[in-house]
Amino acid sequence: xxxxxxxxxxxxxxxxxxxxxxxxxxxxxxxxxxxxxxxxxxxxxxxxxxxxxxxxxxxxxxxxxxxxxxxxxxxxxxxxxxxxxxxxxxxxxxxxxxxxxxxxxxxxxxxxxxxxxxxxxxxxxxxxxxxxxxxxxxxxxxxxxxxxxxxxxxxxxxxxxxxxxxxxxxxxxxxxxxxxxxxxxxxxxxxxxxxxxxxxxxxxxxxxxxxxxxxxxxxxxxxxxxxxxxxxxxxxxxxxxxxxxxxxxxxxxxxxxxxxxxxxxxxxxxxxxxxxxxxxxxxxxxxxxxxxxxxxxxxxxxxxxxxxxxxxxxxxxxxxxxxxxxxxxxxxxxxxxxxxxxxxxxxxxxxxxxxxxxxxxxxxxxxxxxxxxxxxxxxxxxxxxxxxxxxxxxxxxxxxxxxxxxxxxxxxxxxxxxxxxxxxxxxxxxxxxxxxxxxxxxxxxxxxxxxxxxxxxxxxxxxxxxxxxxxxxxxxxxxxxxxxxxxxxxxxxxxxxxxxxxxxxxxxxxxxxxxxxxxxxxxxxxxxxxxxxxxxxxxxxxxxxxxxxxxxxxxxxxxxxxxxxxxxxxxxxxxxxxxxxxxxxxxxxxxxxxxxxxxxxxxxxxxxxxxxxxxxxxxxxxxxxxxxxxxxxxxxxxxxxxxxxxxxxxxxxxxxxxxxxxxxxxxxxxxxxxxxxxxxxxxxxxxxxxxxxxxxxxxxxxxxxxx
Amino acid sequence: xxxxxxxxxxxxxxxxxxxxxxxxxxxxxxxxxxxxxxxxxxxxxxxxxxxxxxxxxxxxxxxxxxxxxxxxxxxxxxxxxxxxxxxxxxxxxxxxxxxxxxxxxxxxxxxxxxxxxxxxxxxxxxxxxxxxxxxxxxxxxxxxxxxxxxxxxxxxxxxxxxxxxxxxxxxxxxxxxxxxxxxxxxxxxxxxxxxxxxxxxxxxxxxxxxxxxxxxxxxxxxxxxxxxxxxxxxxxxxxxxxxxxxxxxxxxxxxxxxxxxxxxxxxxxxxxxxxxxxxxxxxxxxxxxxxxxxxxxxxxxxxxxxxxxxxxxxxxxxxxxxxxxxxxxxxxxxxxxxxxxxxxxxxxxxxxxxxxxxxxxxxxxxxxxxxxxxxxxxxxxxxxxxxxxxxxxxxxxxxxxxxxxxxxxxxxxxxxxxxxxxxxxxxxxxxxxxxxxxxxxxxxxxxxxxxxxxxxxxxxxxxxxxxxxxxxxxxxxxxxxxxxxxxxxxxxxxxxxxxxxxxxxxxxxxxxxxxxxxxxxxxxxxxxxxxxxxxxxxxxxxxxxxxxxxxxxxxxxxxxxxxxxxxxxxxxxxxxxxxxxxxxxxxxxxxxxxxxxxxxxxxxxxxxxxxxxxxxxxxxxxxxxxxxxxxxxxxxxxxxxxxxxxxxxxxxxxxxxxxxxxxxxxxxxxxxxxxxxxxxxxxxxxxxxxxxxxxxxxxxxxxxxxx
Lengths: 707, 707
Description:
Two copies of one chain form a homodimer. Chain A has helices at 13-23, 27-36, 52-65, 70-78, 89-113, 119-128, 130-162, 170-187, 193-220, 245-259, 268-271, 280-308, 339-347, 352-386, 400-420, 425-457, 461-525, 549-560, 575-587, 605-618, 636-641, 644-653, 671-683; strands at 4-5, 231-233, 322-324, 538-543, 565-572, 594-598, 623-632, 659-667, 704-706. The first copy, chain A, has 707 residues and is an alpha/beta fold.
């Protein structure tokens, strides 16, 4: 018997918000607005599912932005043994590109097999069990923090390249940027397709355009050398002689694993399949391929151009490794800029706006990449909450408190990293890719299991062929990512990866503990047969502190429920006030008895709790209904002045078996303020809405089914 | 028709607490215990009203302790013009003693007229109106903060005198001491009579003994000079020539107003009359006189001995004012110790234990004086709360939150002062006595009004004579304190008194605002005739998130209240879970309909709020009863994992008119921990209990009256 009712038409969100903006702008609101920017009107929302040309920038900013730092890291690592090892740079680039292609091919399988958007976490949980899933989840949590820290630190480096005043203050600039991003996301920033599309496409245009123009000039033979081309690199101690095979191999492995930073963010699309237009999986797979090709061409062009322009690039915090050719020290006033900045500076040597365009757009895309972490974090939180691995309240939309806590946590952790590592991208990178490759590996392994399981039942030869091919791809992917993970672990463990592993272990244990707790509670709560017993009688007591409207309302409501016994209770802490109340009670001819509990020591909560316990003892199969009149106020400081005792009393009564606590609210005029505030809060845009394929909440469809 | 029931016998507090200590010591408790000391058993309490010999130390520590710094301040002020002005020191002492005698005579009148213990605040409010009362209250609030800051700073100075390692770290030592005091008071320290009596009597013995022995040696002619006797004092610039009459007058006025610091704390007894044995007022008045005589003899003996021993004492932060006789600078390694230390050092020159005894006991009495502020603060808060000038919740005992907030506020403000003024007693004194004399003045003025009012109706000539005499005393007192207030304001305004006045103005405005708010709310809540209307029908909805014990209990409780309509509501955010619930619902044959609200965007709160609004719209004279099953857990982190959504929902529903919210608690096993904790919390000793004449809460008598 399921009847679906037509939802009542809602007043349009615009009208509602418009009105409230006029009438309810309090001082607090104004000051907040100055800090956090104008509130967005709900009507500005209304996105629907994403076409490929929008989905690409929405999900690709993270992956593409890594081209801003991955090549730099390769050159820094190679510079350990001096500039001679730079000959290996493009080979390392090709190796990274190969890994990327493999990973993308693997994720194209995932996208088809798991179109629900659970991504690596779902794949691991379904195929490898809960522990694998929790491992992936902890890897992802750590990765979100690092995405923010690395991207913003790198952006600060670019900013310092364009604004010399920032040199030496990168950590401060990065911290300020994270705080601004946090404020924006707490406020609820509108994520439209254009918000991502414009800067992402501009970034592609900028990098590919720069590289294309540079390669043209290379062919024409007038590609200038970079500013740093004339410099020599002093090899690190122990690396200055001719290198042994092992040493060279170790060096290349380290450079390669730093270059693998280019792979971060590739998995984002597999979490966003539900936001694509139909056919979702195919569109997602195509977008993934496009993303891979663009990322690879960007990275390879940058590496090749850097090589051709003889760029010299060392750890920015060890500039003393550089020296003028034949000279003894660094040329006076030399500042090392990121690789892309140096290329842009050279390629656009007669056209400075080109340089500024490239640097600005690169900085923006890095900030956008950090922003994706702020969006992905709550989405992951809600998935974990549904599976009982995070507080349940994260699972429902609109829990501002939990949601804000998540954003603030992410911000605090990344600021901590930025400050501890002084915004040095090179050091943060050492922490970064462990988590990424842990989830790559578990996800590939899960996919192999997935295909094997399906092959066991599948009979259609065409389908089986496809599955076998998919499994082969994932197996190859697993082999590749496993090798990379081992390389990363060996080369980076002491350099910082141990921190990541420690953090992952911490998140793992917390999530497991939460899961265990929920399971234990569920067991304790499971219904059994004895729970159908109905209380034999209801003894209602109404707490009367004064004889005012809230009390009268509570008395009326209590009487409307027709309890077996109904009485009012007054805790007397002052004889004069008590007599006044008794007189008023008589004057009003309330035919409800008033019981006075004397409390010479001004305790309020205890006498009431003990009285309910007495009632309960007298009739153990009955239930005590405690009616608490409350008045509802709107301002935070008003809340401090009222209902504190009621709150404490409710807290204590909840621990008393056989009692139910009834709040009878009386709305004071000022409560309208808070009501309006609450409604605006709920209508607010939430980070991650877009990538969950979520439209404006003002248009929420709803049906009612009867059973 | 008032029947008094015999109170049920309570299980003895000792047995209860004893049992719980065994079974419920959690890890958190243990760590807290290490920090804050062992919990006190309630049975250790049980004081009754105070005999004079105990009341004197309980209420006198604050007033007596000022002898530790008041004479020093007199000498510091006189030192401005060099040691020659020290001849005035004992005359200033006599002036201060005269003021003290006057003030004590005045308060003896107050104690008789207002035995309820409201003190200056009550006198001012009753006789001069609310504004005067609020002014006195703000003066008292400021004074509590300054009592802590001054006493602890002075104690730190004494400690540094005995432990050379502390020299230069007085502010740190004072801060640590305040933090320890705070922890002690948050934990609820037992205030027994002995707690005060032993150190206070020891202090009297120490000071009077030292002075007596010193005076004996003076008579015997072998009183040694102080260590500082050989030093010369360089007058401040502008004070080095012969002084003009005006300059000398100003100097003496300043020294006098600093010396008036000896009067702080004298009013304490007038707040504590209810704690005295009968006849309360007479005993209090006698104790007051004893206090005054002891304080005056201590102060005068110290000043006379200091003069006779040729002590040289300057601002401890301007030791460069001292120089060796005939020499050019301070002798190598000279440290200036407080006056009492110097006297003790000289008098007990052949008996070092005497010196250490005096210094130690002085330090203890100063800490005890600070502790009285921690006790008085909550008492004042509860009086203000009863009058609607502070949050109401302060008025009832056992509001740990409000109460702790008060103690932490007091501690934070005094630590701020200690740090800002670097624990310099001399500078803090400048802020101190304004507040004291503001309340003295208003209280005297109120007393004059009081007698005048009573004289208008009193006919008995004997009583009239007594009243006239009392009024004369209070009038003389007002004249005296008014002159002192003017002197204090003139000599100290720029030196720091402006801060006190600003702080008083701030407290004044906050209290007035709170009072206005409560008045406004009371008006809005006043009952009128239309409030007798009873709702016509009750529509009960039970929120079902799962079909577990809490839901079944809520359904049973809801059914027991026999509402007109009863239905269960489920917000569906996931089709699979919904179907599972529907099946279970059918299996259980619950004859209550289950309504499913679809919420595709995972909102939980909004659909329910809107549904209740719809019901309410359909029958505006009915009431909607929303039953929320809650499970009650015991650990703080469990609370984060549960009921967050219920909490948010309740918050929103309270703003919806015509709705009552019913919490149906289901106690999980872990909830026993919290219940036990709550009970222990309530049974805990509270600061200020003793001076309110309050016995252990475990023995709370209680009667039940029926009307």
